Amino acid sequence: MTHPDRIEGVRLVTDYGSLSVKTTVRDRLEYLRGELRAERISYGELAELQSLVEHIEPGDVELLEAAGVPEFPARFVVVENTPGYLPEDDDPATFEDRESARAYLREAVERYTNEYSENGGYVYREHWSDDGLSCLVTLGEQREFQTERVFEVIEATE
């Protein structure tokens, strides 16, 4: 049975009706570790563990994994490719956050379109997704001479 918990500094306060039990967050995490190892941790205790994630040591894989924290933080990869061809870059640009990847994506599209419009005299169109995480660039005006280039941000977990 779970009870309302609140954190006061490094103390976790659990209310059992008129009785309040104070323990350290560290003690509670160790209790939850014991329940986890004994394979008798309840859904309520897992939810409690998730609420205490910010107090778990970064290297404590056992508790972090049980709390649902991914072992490897998400990375965002910017991929540029011409449809129908193998990827040209074996080491694409990688970012720790989506906004940095989105900014790089915009710069990559701008570099590409500038290169072909200034040097080659190509007319181009940009087709952006609503979230700004992908863009299809079409070069050329006549369909039989058009070339397309795809730019997109992909979330990678490993």
Question: Could you describe the 3D structure shown?
Answer:
This protein has 158 residues and is α+β, with helices and mostly antiparallel strands. It has two domains: 5-66, no CATH class; 75-156, no CATH class. Helix content is 32%, strand content 30%. Strands 5-4-8-7-6 form a five-stranded antiparallel beta sheet, with helices on one face. Strands 1-2-3 form a three-stranded antiparallel beta sheet. A hairpin with a 5-residue loop joins β6 and β7 (134-139). The longest helix has 22 residues, at 98-119. The two termini are 37 Å apart. The mean pLDDT is 82.
Give a nutshell description of this structure.
This protein is 32% helix and 30% strand. By secondary structure, it is of the alpha+beta class. It has 2 domains: 5-66, no CATH class; 75-156, no CATH class.
